[in-house]
Amino acid sequence: MADFAELTTSVIDISAVARRVVPPECGATVTLDGYARRFTKDKQTGEVRETEYLVYEAYESMAVKEMQRLIEQAKSEFEIANVGIVHRTGRLEIGETSVVISVAAPHRRAAFAACEWLIKELKRTVPIWKKEVYAGGEVWVEGEASP
Amino acid sequence: MKVQVLFFGATADAAGSRRLGVNIDDGQTVGEIVERLKIDHPPLSSHNLLIAVNEEYVGPETALKHGDEMAVFTAVSGG
Fold first, then answer.
1. Does pTM surpass 0.90?
2. Residue numbers in A near B48 (CB within 8 A)
3. In this complex, do A127 and B76 lie within 8 Å of one another by their Cβ atoms?
4. Closest chain A residue to B18 measured between Cα atoms?
5. Burial class (CB in 10 A: 0-12, 13-18, 19+), B73
6. Could you report the predicted ipTM of this complex, rounded to two decimals?
7. Which of A56, A95, A111, A134 could be disulfide-bonded to A30 (CB atoms 3.0-4.6 Å)?
8. Could you report the per-residue pLDDT of A28-75, keeping only the tens digit for each?
9. Which of A37, A55, A56, A57 would best serve as a mutation to test chain B binding (most B beta carbons within 10 A)?
């Protein structure tokens, strides 16, 4: 069973991703399905925007490398077996999945903890950017933390 | 010496380009090139910028070499 970190422009089949992370020594996989939300509160202005759609752009070669690095780090910090990450780029409609993270572990507590850690770190360091397109215009969202 | 500078998202909009070839002097640092880019493309100055060289995050003091790929972008917002 191998880990994987991929970018795609296609609709993500969450169960297909999760089913790729089923090591025989494990009993469960924890899967995060992150998807485009309709309403977003701007952290700077407090304004609530209604999104029409999102566009994700990636520095592809570095994004894949960075996701692979996060997988290696998660495997060294948590007692987990395998990880799969798929992130979508291009245009996403509301409700469509942008990212799936699947983590298999012999015991579920580590799988939950590692999955939470991976999404937090992905949002902090992986070079992918989200543009929100809404009725009043569009804006590239700038993240908060620095890598 | 020449380096490729890549822009993404908000910085690509600010620079009006996704890729620039930039001539540099031996030993010039990332910080010096960023300052030059901000002068050439003023809208870049209104963002906090992150820099990667050859797909690794670096600080402004990092010296550049011929053929390096430098990427200039805003704080990431994937996920």
1. yes
2. 142
3. yes
4. A59
5. buried
6. 0.96
7. A111
8. 999 999 999 999 988 778 989 899 999 999 999 999 999 999 999 999
9. A57
